[in-house]
From TrEMBL:
<dbReference type="InterPro" id="IPR042302">
    <property type="entry name" value="E1_FCCH_sf"/>
</dbReference>
<protein>
    <recommendedName>
        <fullName>Ubiquitin-activating enzyme E1 FCCH domain-containing protein</fullName>
    </recommendedName>
</protein>
């Protein structure tokens, strides 16, 4: 019996083998058995991913690093390279550099010696060399500083890829010009072993960093190459006044005592109270008598509060702009008292491991000494943990989560409600009998018991995506569609359990554009992608591998898309290296701009047959796309390759193999096709802008698709849009699966598949 069947969407992504019998599942009609280096689009098609563009090698490839996003706004974003006791910055596919030293000479020697003018560099600094006339072989190359001679203003050049001397003896003689710009970095206390347990939250130009064994710190951007890492002081930003000057209007034996506080000019944050001043004089109950209180001036203060001691409590009696204040027997309001100093987050054992923002407060939780405790600053402040007696609504908030088990608060997340993810459950903190979270209205309640790992969650749309405590499942938490005050938690890895069983997830990132995708680094170095559009019930998994392994991910907006940055560990030229790489955009109007190589670089300029600057791929066989045409693979030697013909746009990098495999064939009728032998003889692929892929019944018997139609001789083949008919090798079996492979540096987008199937008895 001959039949024809159609696969019209692939948005279901990878479906686990244990679900192949669930023909009742709608997802099984849109799923795939394999999608490696392919991703599914939310509206149905599937396409091979673009390549990762090489950005730079990490400072020390023998140690792990972590990439962290920093977004001031949609136009100003960075990816921070957190390494062993340092941070570097990357943006728009490049590394942040300081203003360059002026080069005045470079010797032809081994090693080459560079002469400069400007501030002396330090041994070990990385320098980016550019605009050199004559010895142009060094342009666009990073070099490590060695043997600085501050008297002669010289240093030797060594390779950043391994540290060998850069031999310039065979280079063109230096003529003039050039700059050597230092890679910008700052020192940190964070050791390699602790990098993936750091937790972050950002507000404008400030990134808060916490870890239970380090004092909480702020990373502040003060300028393009001026960043400051400092320990947080949990005190008001406005200074404390010294004792006020107090005088009495007349002699007497009655004593009155006063304190003052300062109010900050920009936020009206209140300082700690000054030392007290007592005055003995006429009783204020006497007609016409008064005390004059003059507060001490504080820089940045706009007004001052005056407090008077009454029955053992300090009570508010008024405010002044700094001029003398007259107390003519004002009754002290003891319901408004000065702030009480409080710093529960200082000292070993008291450093928080969780951080977030909620309700105009910066929040902390999960110290070693108090793993279930939570603290939030005073309203509209960043560092002020003070409180008042009696309690006021804008006081700092502090409480302990009471539960059957002592499970650390690992993450603090703010959606419509304040959420805690502990190692043993999920909690929400809603205000009780109030619309605002205050010290007296906070009411923590547990609504889930799955728990979260220490991997920092991501907020995707209106959901929180986090790794379950076991480390091997991904969960989604979001408001209930019918009751937004309640929250639902579900396992979003349930349809592809084989991607998670026996593995753990070590890092997460989320890209909003051009397609919403969650990215996960698996413990074996595989990158997992989830096409995520929950409002349309689109949850489609795909896997991504490379020549090496992925170790960390971060997403930031660059231009009109969110760029995915990774740390890729590779074995290049007999050494293990770690590279910062950036997923290239897949949008292109010119076929020559199609970028489908990993650790890749692009040459664009005057047509040439020599492509240089490939030191990071030394000794590797690389894939090449030259002016939209696939070139034979070549090996990088001395940082360069030779093409068979000149080209003006050339992409060079490690080859990518993208594999796609359909699910076992079943028909849209209960049990139809189950248990019967089948053979797919013809495949009809509706494709868009595709070329160079192969199709077959398995990955060992693939048939190439047509490469050329009516193009001029010497011109690259044109990309195909339309229906391609492919006759594949016959293979009788019960599954009748079809495989697609793209191993060329070319795009393939599959919109649908139709199969001609022969069904046996």
């Amino acid at each position: 019996m001959n039949l024809k069947t159609l696969a019209r969407s692939f948005s279901g992504g990878i479906i686990g083998p244990e679900l192949y019998g669930r023909v009742d599942l709608a997802k099984l009609q849109t799923g795939l058995a394999e999608a490696n280096n392919f991703w599914v689009l939310p509206h149905g098609p599937v396409q091979n991913r673009p390549g990762f563009q090489y950005v730079n090698e990490v400072k020390d490839s023998t140690k792990k690093v972590r990439v962290v996003p920093f977004s001031f706004n949609t136009e100003q974003t960075f990816v921070l390279e957190f390494g062993d006791q340092y941070i570097r910055w990357h943006t728009n596919g490049g590394t942040l550099l300081e203003t360059g030293l002026t080069i005045t000479g470079i010797s032809k020697a081994n090693p080459g010696v560079l002469t400069y003018t400007g501030t002396d560099p330090a041994n070990g600094d990385w320098m980016y060399l550019s605009s050199i006339v004559g010895m142009a072989e060094l342009n666009g190359r990073y070099a490590k500083v060695k043997n600085v001679n501050a008297v002669a203003n010289t240093f030797e050049l060594s390779d950043t890829h391994g540290g060998a001397n850069i031999d310039t003896s065979g280079f063109t003689a230096y003529t003039s010009g050039g700059t050597a710009a230092r890679v910008y970095e700052i020192a940190t206390p964070y050791l390699e072993a602790d990098l993936f347990d750091l937790h972050f939250v950002q507000s404008a130009d400030v990134l808060t960093i916490v870890h239970p064994t380090y004092a909480p710190r702020e990373l502040r951007r003060l300028g393009a190459t001026n960043w400051q890492l400092s320990t947080i002081s949990f005190i008001p930003t406005i200074g404390t006044p010294t004792a006020p000057t107090v005088t009495s209007s007349g002699a007497g034996s009655t004593t009155y005592t006063y304190k003052t506080t300062a109010l900050a000019s920009d936020t009206l944050e209140e300082s700690y109270a000054s030392p007290s001043t007592a005055v003995t004089g006429v009783a204020l109950t006497t007609s016409g008598s008064y005390n004059t209180i003059t507060p001490a001036t504080v820089t940045g203060a706009v007004r001052y509060n005056i407090y008077k001691l009454a029955s053992g409590l300090w009570g508010y009696i008024g405010q002044t702009d700094g001029s003398a204040f007259k107390d003519d027997n004002i009754t002290a309001d003891v319901s408004q008292t000065p702030p009480e100093p409080n710093d529960p987050l200082s000292g070993a054992g008291n450093f928080p491991g969780a951080v977030g923002y909620h309700g105009q407060r910066r929040c902390f939780g999960g110290t070693n000494n108090k793993p279930q405790n939570f603290w939030a600053t005073r309203s509209a402040t960043e560092n002020n943990l003070s409180y008042s007696i009696p309690t006021r609504d804008d006081d700092a908030i502090a409480f302990r989560v009471t539960a059957r088990e002592v499970n650390r608060i690992r993450h603090i997340v703010s959606l419509d409600q304040l959420l805690f993810l502990t190692s043993g459950g999920e909690w929400k903190v809603a205000p009780q009998n109030s619309d605002v979270l205050t010290p007296t209205s906070a009411d923590p309640k547990q609504f889930g018991a799955e728990g979260a790992s220490n991997v920092q969650p991501v907020i995707a749309a209106s959901s929180v995506i986090y790794v379950q405590e076991s480390g091997s499942r991904l969960r989604e938490m979001k408001a209930n569609i019918y009751d937004t005050s309640s929250l639902d938690v579900r396992d979003i890895s349930i349809l592809a359990p084989h991607l998670f069983d026996d593995y753990s997830v070590g890092d997460l990132a989320y890209a909003k554009t051009p397609n919403k995708m969650v990215w996960c680094v698996r413990s074996d170095g595989t990158l997992l992608g989830l096409t995520y559009l929950p409002e349309h019930d689109v949850l489609g998994w795909h896997t991504h591998t490379t020549d090496g392994s992925f170790e960390s991910v971060a997403c930031v907006k660059e231009g009109s898309e969110h760029a995915l940055y990774t740390v890729a560990k590779r074995h290049i030229n007999s050494r293990d290296v770690r590279y910062i790489e950036r997923l290239h955009s897949r949008r292109f109007s010119d076929p020559a701009d199609a970028f489908f190589v990993d650790a890749g670089l692009t040459y664009s300029g005057t047509a040439t047959s020599t492509i240089t600057g490939l030191w990071h791929l030394e000794g590797e066989e690389v894939a090449v796309l030259a002016d939209a045409g696939e070139h034979n693979r070549v090996t990088v030697t001395d940082g360069a390759i030779e093409l068979d013909a000149k080209a003006s746009t050339v992409h060079v990098g490690l080859p990518i193999t993208a594999d796609l495999k359909t699910l076992p064939l079943s028909f849209e009728a209960e049990a139809a096709g189950q248990g019967l032998t089948k053979n797919v003889s013809e495949v009809y692929l509706r494709v868009k802008d595709s070329l160079g892929y192969e199709v077959g019944p398995n990955f060992d018997e693939l048939q190439p698709t047509t490469q050329r139609s009516g193009e001029d001789y010497g011109a690259p083949p044109e990309f195909v849009t339309g229906v391609e008919q492919i006759t594949i090798m016959p293979e009788w079996g019960q599954d009748a699966q079809v495989c697609v492979r793209q191993s060329a540096p070319l795009p393939v987008t599959i919109l649908s598949m139709a199969f001609e199937v022969t069904v046996g008895a």
